[in-house]
Structures are given as C-alpha cells and as structure tokens.
Amino acid sequence: MVENIVLGIGITALAGALAAVAGAAEDTESDIGSQGDPNSQVQLAPQMGFIHRIFNKAVSGEPPAYGLWCALGAGIAWVFLIKDVNPVLALILGATIATFVQGVYATSGYLGRTASLAKFGQPVYIDILKSMLSVTMAHAFVAVFTTITICYLMNAVLGHPFPLPLLGIVWGIALGAAGSATGNPFYGKERQYQNQQFGAGVPISASGNIVRYAEAGQRNSLDNGWFSSKLGGPASGICFGLIVFLELWRTVLFEHIAAGWGAIIVGFAIILVFVVIDRWIETYARKTYGPYAAPEEANL
Amino acid sequence: MSALGAKPAAAGDIDPISSVIGIVLAVVFVAIVAVLAPVALMPLLGIILGGVLIGFGVHFVPVGGAPAAMGQAPGIATGVAMLAAGAGLAGLFGGAWAAELGVVVATVTGAVGGGLLMAITCMMVNIIYVFGMGIPSASGKVAKDPITGDTQPEFKSQGTEGHGLPFISFVGGVVGGLFGGAGGTLIYLMLLEVYEHYLPGIFDATAAQIMPVAVSLAGIFAIGMFLVNAVLAAYNITGTIEGPHDPKFKRFPRAIIASLVASALCGLVAIMIVVVNLNI
Known about the structure:
Chain A is mostly helical.
C-alpha cells in the first residue's frame, strides 16, 4: 500500500515535469507556426498592405490539432506495445510518425494559406518553409512525445481505465487548450504588436499592422519562437504542468480517503487557493498600474 | 411560409416552432429506447442531462478568441468549443478514474477536474496579462464587476473592448469547467452502464473480458457527445462571451433545447449500436 502511494507520487511528479516540458514546447511550436488565434493577424497583414516573412501554418485551433497528433502518436505507440515492442521505443516511434503528419499539415497549411494571399502581393517564401518547418516539427516532437509518455504512465503505471489513444485525445486537447489560452496573448499582443504601447491592449484600428522587421533584416518566425520561449512558452508549461500534476496528485493521494470524497474536497480546496491568488493578481494590477483614464470621464 | 420568407429571429429569442419540433423529436428518440431497450431508458435520460449540463456550462466560460490574443477583448484567447472541451475532457479523465466509486462521487470528481483545469488556466491568463504585458483586467460589458464591485471602464485601454479576466469571468470559467466536467462524466458513466449490460451477450464473453471494449466505446462516445454539445453552445454564443454577466449569457435556454435534442439523438445511436443485433 505504502509502496503503491510512493510509486504514485513519483509518477505524479514525473508526469508533472513532462507536462511542463510539453506545454513549453507546444506553445513555442504553435507560435513559430502562428497557429492559435494570432494567425488571424498574420493572415490579415498582407490584406492591409503589410507583406511579411512570418510562417503561418494554422489549419485548426491548437486543441484539435494536438488532439489529433497526440491521439495519433499514442495510437501508433499502442499498436507497437501490443506487439511487445519496448515501451520507450514504441513511444518514440509513435511520436515520430505523429510529427511527420504535423509536418505534412504545416507544409500544406503554409502553402495554402499564403497562396490564397497572392492577390495582395504576398509571396510564398520557399526558404521560410524550409527553415521553419524543421523547427516546428522538432518542437512538435517534444510536445507529442512528452504528452504520450504521460498518457502511458497514467495507463500502465497508475492504472487509468482509458486505453492509450483515448488518453492521447483527452490530454492532447487539454494541452492545446492550456497552451493557447496562456501563450496566445503573449505572442499575439506582445510580439506581433511590439510597435504598440506597452501596458495596453492593441487598438482595433491597428489590426494587421504587425511588426515585420527585426534588428537586422526582416523578422521571421524563428525570432518569434525565441521571444515566446522567454515567457509565453514557460508559462504554458507551468499551466499544463500544474493541471497534470495537481489532477494526479489529488487522485493518487486522497481518492482512498472517505470513499472518493477526499480527492473531491482537496480539489475544491486547490480551486479556492487559485481563486485567492487570481484575486490578488487582479487587485495588484489595479493598484500598481492604475486606471488609463479618470473614473469620472469613463463611459461605456 | 418558406425559410427565405421567414423573419429573422432576434439573437436571443427562442423560435417556438423549431423548439417544439425538436422536443417532439427528443421524446420520440426516448420512446424508441423505452420500447426497444427499457434497461437503457434511465441511462439515456442521464446522457440527456449530461448534454444539457455541457451546453449550459459552456456559456459560463469566458472566451475572447482572436481579439483576446491582441488584448482587444476580455476572455481567454482561444475558441469556445475547444476551451470547454479541454476542461470537460480533463474532468472526464478524473471521473472515469473514479467510476467504480459510484455515479455521484465520479460525477463530482469529474466536475472538480474540469473546474481545476479552468482555475489554473484562468489564473495563468491573468499572470501573462498582468506580469508579462502590464495590462490590468477590464470588462467591456459591465460598469462594475457583479461580485467584487470593482469599476471597469477606466481600466479599459483606448480603442479596445477590455482585456484580461475580471473576477466575474474567472468565476464563470471555473463554474463552466465544473458543469462541463460533470456533464462529460455523466455521459460516460451512463454509456458504460449500457455497454456493461449488453456487450457480454453480444460477444458471448464475461463482464471482465468486455470491460476494455466497454470503457473504450463509452469514452469515445462521451468525447464525441461532449464536442457536439460544446459546438452547439458555441454557435449559440456566436464568437466571444465574457461570462455569466455578458448579455449573450441570456441565450442559454436556446442552447439547452438544442443540447437536449442532440444528446437524445446521439444517445439513441450510441445505445442502439449494442441493442440492435443484426447478426451479421
């Protein structure tokens, strides 16, 4: 019993760490490919006369995309596992094949999206495709491999009833949701609109006027990946890592207390802690940054 | 009256004719199950309740879509259906794990799983906005936060509809996650009950032997039905919503009717695949 709990805690910690890596890789991958909501600005820019060299491979939102890739990777790994292949090798093979599928989507996504902008004078840059593709695929491999490894640990070690592909869908969609929610504003506002004022939202009138020039030459998506990996990526990693870790932690340690109610009570307590932290963050911002205009002038 | 000649209904209105048709269809679907598989009647009602919980819960989730990614509108910068799916499926994961502890415990466990994902995600959104971008939260739809009473308009930067997640939106996100997680788990548990009852007969196997198939089938259908209900609610919301204080929230009765009908149909299909034995 005690050994089981100790093993469970160890697996929980490992899964949390893997999830943190997965979240960071997922957000950086999606930002290099402009996948998430900021792709709307990359797509809009040429229509407003701003020709750019930003990679845009969005074919869907991040959650369904990662749901597909993780389910694919987990499904292939599952087949290899049934054939008694070594689990590590099976997971690597699953993630590799899923990554190639991601590469196919990224290629067709970039060519299709950019070609549709031909009437606005936006060229299809083959060098951009060649240099960005391998980088997004590398990040996708890290994200998919770590996520399906978490799924494998949940299934094989912790004994979750769902088969590996189903866990792949569930945690792939959750990974995409966490990564897009946390990372998108940092890429969309803070990077694409670096020319706008810091500490304020982008005025709707500035839509499409994304930053297109770097310190030397034109900006490309590798510059954006470098920027995102400084905050948006790690924050997404912490977000997904906390989700996986706390979900497993409360179940492994407290599910046996009071016929399952222990995990529920601990879950509510954790939610309450996050409510308090969020309220503190909100009031901190209001006090520290202050209002944009005097209250009496404000009108809806 | 042709469809082209019909007057367009106001955004939040319920169309009485289509609603009645929908409810009649739902009653027919339930009646089919009651006649062909009386054992599956209560599970079908559970599935419908789960679908309605999901459809209702999605309306609480503050979703800002693309404008939120530029700090032009409050909410979480992703799509309605996707975010709700992320939360609901995380809940389903926890709920399925606790399935053997009974329907009530498993459903509440699922709810907490969904709420936990939303609480963490919403907090990280505010951390990015406040500490990464220096932008305080502000609602574009209300002058004062209904819970905290904080005034909103003066914290809205020029040329935007607001940004970040005010406290009411944060709470809405958590409540939406709770509903989504509970609904998804309830659908899963009900389907599992049906499959555990019928599959041993079809495969001529013991209950333990069919368990992996039953769990997989129930899981796949639960995820599918979750997405059906989340997407229906997303169509009802049309784009973005700030949470329970947003005027669009009042449209939820229409989504409940839609979820009820869609869940009844999906439940009927999910049940009939094991009830109708074609002997092929």
